[in-house]
Amino acid sequence: MKTSICPPNLPLELVLQIIDTLTPAHPIPIALPPSHPTTTTLISFTSTSRAIRPIAVRLLYRYCLYIDCERPLWRLLVALGLGKDDDDGEDVLGSLSVKRLLQPLAFRPRRLFITTEEEEDEHLWIKPIIDDMGTLLSYLAPTLTHLVINLPLRTLGTRSQKLLRKSLENLPNLELVCDLQGSYNISTGTLPPLPKLRHLALYSPDVCTDDFLSALERMPDLESLVIVRTYGLQEEDFERRWGRMMKARNDETDVSISKLLVIVVNVESDHRSGIPRAKIGKWMEIRRVNVPTSYYGDEDAGELSQKWVRRRILSGAEPGGWEL
After folding, report:
1. The pTM is what?
2. For residue 147, what pLDDT band results from cuts at 50, 70 and 90?
3. Which of 299, 281, 301 is nearest to 203 (CA)?
C-alpha cells in the first residue's frame, strides 16, 4: 500500500527572507504600479497565513503606494482606518489589521504617487477628493519623504486649491516633490518652507521672479531643480541672481553650500533660445535635456515632456544621475 509523503514545510524565517527579495534594492522606486509583479505577488502573500501577512502588508504599503483616484483613494482611507466603509462591509486588506500593522511610525509609508487617468470633466470629479487627500497627507506627514502628484489641480477653484495647499504645508520631511500639474504654485510664493527638500520638479514655473528665488532660498538642502518646458528663462540672469544670493549666504555662514543642478526638459524644437546644452558655474550647473520624439514628431510637447520626467522620477533615479 502506497502512502503519500507530504513535502517538508520551509522554515518561516526562510519564507520571510524570500519575500524580502521581492522588493527593489537600488534605486528604490517611488511606487510600483498595481500591475507590477512585485505588487501582485505581495497582494497574494497577504492572504496566505497570519505569520506572513504582516510583512507582506508592510512591504505593500512601503513600495506600492500607487494611488489612481478616485475610488482607490477612498478605499485606501478605509484600509488605514481613516474613512467609513459604506460598501456593505467590504474588507480592504482587513482595515483593522492594516491600521494596527502600520501604527508604528517605522512602518508608515514614506513614498506616495497619486494620479488619475481621467481626461474629461476633470474639475468636476476632482473636487470631492480634496478632503480625502488632506486626510491621507495628514496621516503620512510624520514619515512622507517622496511625493509625486499627477492631478489636474490647475482646474480647481480657489477654495479647493487653498484646501489642498494647506495640506501640503504640513509635510516638513519631504525630500523629493514632483508636481507637473500646479499644486505647488511656487511662482506666486505659496510654496511652504521645506527644509529637507533635495529634489524638486515643476512644470513651466516663472523662474525669474523674486518669489521663485525666495522660495528656493528656503530650501537649504536643495540639490536639483527639474524644470519642464519653462518659458522666460534668461539663463544668464537666473544664474547671476542665484549666485548673488548664495554668495551672500556663504558670507553669513560657515556652512558649505552645494551647487544647484538645474535640468531644463523639453523637446528639442521647443527649447527657448539662450538655454545652453550644458553650463557649469560656481553656484549653479545648467543642463538642457531633449526629450525623444517619435518619427513623425506629432506628440504634444508638454505632455511628452511631463511623462518623460515622471517616469524617471518614479523609477527612483535621482536627477543628477539621469542619462541624457
Report:
1. 0.85
2. very high
3. 301
